[in-house]
Design a protein that fits this description.
Rossmann fold, globular, six-stranded parallel sheet, homodimer, alpha/beta
Chain lengths: ~425, ~425
């Protein structure tokens, strides 16, 4: 059952305030263990990674880095229909990300050439979890933005290299596969070991150990945002079919007991109709227990009365996935602040974005869309500022530059300009 | 004295390896204290910030947020020449950053509309340190990229709001000034207090407490990279004047005893000539003691023999500031990997980039240019993916989407697509 709050009730704003601070998972309880794992891998390298894999995952692979021929052969065992679907999805994802390429720029002003060079990072690692969250789609959604950015070395890190995962890796352009998981695998790619050269960027979702390890290696490498529970916020006007809205809410509720299925309607009757549809559809769902718990814990409906208030509430909630199931989604979009991915109109299921529409399904959660973006090509590039003065230009600006340097008490800065006045 | 290493010597590659792992400051020693400060501010708000300011900075301002009229009046007290210089620098910085604006995109493919919306974050804080590193130029270099991004609320956070700092804030378009510093000030803007609304992004350099606080609030807000000691790497061919090269090295060495003045030359004689010039120029420098210690601790010269090897060494060193003091800097640039800001040719002092050339002087240090970029407009925007299916498009892709969802065992995902087949 969704908890329904109507505008005007005291609980309405209080619930919104509380949800706007939902934040991310508290990693403190695993931090001491993770710190120890990171330190041990940094000191002892491959052996430490293998020891931890044996202890935590009850397996000790012969080599951490898979032989390329061998993993491609394993990828070849996948069902041809699965390969075809992965390939079609990959093409759509690739085409979308081509639009995110940045050419850089260069121009001249008063004898000064200025510019920005954009290059791919040298190496990136994409993490793919084992266990219940083993999704080949996530390999596509993390590795393809890196290949489009032009990254030469793309390392898939996974504790469970199944044929489906490896086929996705092949299709996405992964160049190297590391057979390890958990904090020890994050340490291996962040610091480097005898068999694994360090990378520059580590992305992809994982369990609490992986999330904590990513936070702690941040600074030695860059990371993407820390993945929290899935969120979907559906704004449904009177034209939205309650059965369709309920299906969208369930598609995220089934991910995780901690997922957030959130709803905004204009009327109480519409919220109740969606809730009734949820109850009906839940019954036949394979992952019924998970979805039911998510709805009970974090299922909320806000009855806003009008679209202006709906836009305000959606802005406060700052959701990972935002479905605008309304007649004029574009004008509502203009009123909404941050959101990870926006699904416009009645005919766009959030699930399309999870698989094949094009944008990456790796999105900020926990309100982090206020300050971060979907995983994209921009996550895999580094920019350099370019500056070139002509002799006349440096003479022209010398008074300005020396004045500012001396204002700050930095005489050597001023002299590095002054010495060029003569040239 | 620079430590000179020649290609072929065993020490040459060993020193390079060691410098390529120079990393960032170890924040662990202050972490327990900083955690306590963050928790206390989160619980007790303004009072806690004021208490810590009294304890650490020996002052307790009447209000944490300065009255706008009052700080503008204070900014008005600055020398007219200083204001003119700050304004001219600000205009150049603004013009450069206009080139970094991203328009977003929108296109249609097979009945699916796809796009990316780019918007500014709602609020950003820029930190300006007190003490010896009190630089108005840093206020320009952090706040202007935010104003160009279109950020509506820009909060300057500083423990020492001098007329120069406030004039820079006014010129840069700062909207709010918080009179506090240290970890308590970072906590205040990241979590919010009674008088300060939380922001979405916190940027700018600070001491070890500020750096540690930024790391710990990362996740509640976004941050820029953690500032370490300044670095300059000059690649000097035989055409470079040793006196000019030495002046550039000193302009970063004077910042901090821990700064890195690094040099690449093609010949040993050129390295020795620069070293001799350094000794001479040091004598008359006001900040001689600081610069001398930086050179003694972290001053290295690599004699590479040729430009190809120079490009390789520069790539390994991945420096914050890279001066290509060579005859053909563009062709050398093509061979160099990551660098924060690149100063091309003999006539471009690094100091020009610190003040007025245009690009932000807030750059990644400690090798972090391998995976991060100069502070820019892109740091103050958030992107949202846009997806809109037509009824025909979702029917067309239904087999693909449902197939992938069922491959991953996510039936509710498949049903959210299937329910739209009929439409």
């Amino acid at each position: 059952m969704l908890a329904i709050h109507e505008r005007g009730q005291a609980s309405y704003q209080a619930t919104l305030d509380s949800l706007s601070h939902r934040g991310t998972e508290d990693l403190a309880r695993v931090e001491p263990d993770v710190r120890e794992i990171l330190e041990t891998v940094r000191e002892r390298g491959d052996e430490a990674v293998l020891d931890y894999s044996e202890r935590f995952d009850r397996r000790r692979p012969e080599a951490l880095v898979l032989d390329r021929e061998a993993w491609l052969a394993e990828a070849g065992r996948v069902d041809p229909d699965v390969r075809k679907a992965l390939t079609e999805a990959a093409e759509r994802i690739r085409r979308y990300h081509e639009h995110q390429r940045e050419p850089g720029f260069r121009y001249e002003e008063d004898g000064v050439e200025l510019g920005q060079r954009v290059r791919p990072v040298a190496a990136a690692a994409v993490y793919a979890p084992g266990g219940k969250a083993r999704y080949p789609s996530t390999v596509l959604m993390t590795a393809i933005p890196a290949t489009v950015a032009g990254v030469k070395r793309i390392v898939l890190v996974t504790p469970n290299p199944s044929p489906e995962i490896l086929a996705a890796a092949e299709v996405a352009g992964v160049t190297e596969v590391v057979d390890a998981g958990g904090a020890q695998a994050i340490a291996a790619v962040a610091y480097g070991t005898e068999s694994i050269a360090r990378v520059d960027k580590v992305v992809g979702p994982g369990n609490i150990y992986v999330a904590c390890a990513k936070r702690l290696v941040f600074g030695a490498v860059d990371i993407d945002s820390i993945a929290g529970p899935s969120e979907i916020l559906v704004v449904a006007d009177e034209g939205a079919d309650p059965e369709v809205v309920a299906a969208d809410l369930l598609s995220q509720a089934e991910h995780d007991e901690a997922a957030y299925p959130l709803l905004i309607t204009l009327s109480r009757s519409q919220a109740e109709a969606v809730d009734a549809a949820l109850e009906r559809q839940l019954e036949s769902l394979p992952r019924k227990a998970i979805a039911k718990e998510a709805i009970a814990k974090n299922g909320y409906a806000f009855v806003t009365g009008d679209l202006t208030e709906a836009g305000r509430v959606a802005t406060v909630l700052a959701a990972e996935h935002l479905s605008l199931s309304v007649e004029d989604p574009d004008s509502l979009l203009d009123q909404v602040g941050a959101a990870g991915a926006v699904f416009l109109g009645y005919h766009t299921p959030e699930a399309a974005g999870d698989y094949a529409a094009g944008p990456s399904h790796v999105l900020p959660t926990g309100g982090a869309v206020r300050f971060s973006s979907p995983l994209g090509v921009y996550d895999f590039v580094i920019r350099s500022s370019l500056i070139r003065y002509s002799p006349a230009a440096i003479a022209d600006q010398a008074d300005l530059l020396e004045g500012l340097a001396r204002l700050e008490g930095l005489e050597a800065h001023a002299r590095a300009v002054a010495i060029r006045r003569r040239s």
